Amino acid sequence: MNKIARINIYIAIFFSIVLFIACDANSSENNEITSKSNNILANSAELKQSNIDKTNIFSIRGRGSVKQKQEILEINLAIENRDKEIIKATNSVNENIEKILEIAKLLGIDEDQIVTKEYSISPVTRWVEKKDDYGEYGESQIIAYRVYNSVLITSEDKDSLTSFIDKANAEVGNSFRVNNIKFKAKANEQNKILSREKAVEDALKKAKFYEDKLNIELGKIIYFDEFQHGGSNHNLQDPVPMMRMAEASMPSTDLFAGESEIISEVFLGFEIK
């Protein structure tokens, strides 16, 4: 082996050693940050104090976010009817509820996916002006009774639920209400934890950066606070009365789940040594 070849081998070995040391140091630093992050979250309640002297605190904000698909669809719908007789109004609502439950069954929606959310019977009144021997006066009179029954249907099959809305609208007509449509993610709670962990790790990395660049030494964490928002898509919350139409001319319902984003922000206060 000539001299040049031996030199090239030595150089290759040298750089391999340097790269290994650098990677190992980076891995150790990341593991240390992850360990600190877990420890902070475990003791967050003790760190959330308001009576701390903040004159000697170095504060850092960390941010973490997780995007998630909305796989679960919840529809809150209702049947409402009014009549001068409670029995007639109740019977009408019950019949229409049976109709929509039968439609749901035909579309493969199980009974355990349907939950009653509200049931009420209330008087419908109006103010009437009257007059007697003592003068004019007004009083509230019952003119009818309102019966209201709402159910929540949950499913991961968006096509079945949109078909359900269309068919229920055609079958029930003006008594049919869509109160709320909500999209949810399966792993919402796990993603909240993940975004929180990312926020703490981000704060710790920033603290390490400023500690090195500003030539300061940071001690223990003596203050912690957090904010979290997001996690659900927009909701359609206003009750929507549906109108009966010929089924052939009825427009189909379109629902778009999209994505939501969970954002966590943490605030860490380090003691300056």
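Next protein, fold it too.
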Amino acid sequence: MIPVPHLEWHITHSCNFTCQGCGHYTNDGYKQNIDLETLRDWYLLWNKKIRPSELSMLGGEPLLNKDIVNIIYMTKDVWNIQDDQEYEIVSNGLLFDRIEGLSEAMIDTDCILTITKHSQEKNYLRLFDKAIKSIEESGIKYRIYDMTEEWLKPYNGYGKTIEPICSDDYKSSWDHCPTGQQNFTLEDGKIYKCSSLAYLPMQKRKYGDELSSKWDPYLKYKPLLPTDTQLDVLEFFIRSAEPVCSMCPKNRIPFRKETPLHSPRYVRNLYG
């Protein structure tokens, strides 16, 4: 098998947050879980071909998938995750104590909860601190990824008004990649260079011709297919900058977002 540094995938496109500039576009009101059997089918296309050092399940908000406990066990089994690999769920954490059997499943499978902290706004912090207390008491492994000081801008606009940055220097865009250059994403059985490319077709299906034509070159991106050769797979995972990287800025554009508790309607109004 070919060793790869990281692989991630959505187990839901739904989210209970509306974060401005979400690189997964799940701030746009999606209501769709990925079911256990579909995920298993995706895994079986790749689990004998690649061996990720890190395996990450996310969304959206993964705790919105009510089958998450079974998904945790199935994922560990099908990928045959070993002690030298890292297995995680990336979550905002607020729903942790609502899911029966979640902490037991995470302890049984040695799955880490990576909690994203999004804001210093007082109402959000009240909910966040309550969630952290519950998570601490559960005995699972967890860590906090603090995103309150810097949130990177991957595109302009919101919803159907989004437009790519269209950098004039895609190599610099790669050098300043907001996803960290190892954001390989499994979606619909195919592997994409990053989440923004993987879930862009979702926006196109939602908005059709209302979506800016500036996205057209990026919608032509060809992901890695299960039928591709071993040489294709090797080349894919060592490839660095390529023209599609121009969808993001050539210099990192940090901004401090508002509370993620706003509704999609509120954020949509911010962008007219």
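About the second fold: The CA atoms of residues 54 and 86 lie 5 Å apart.
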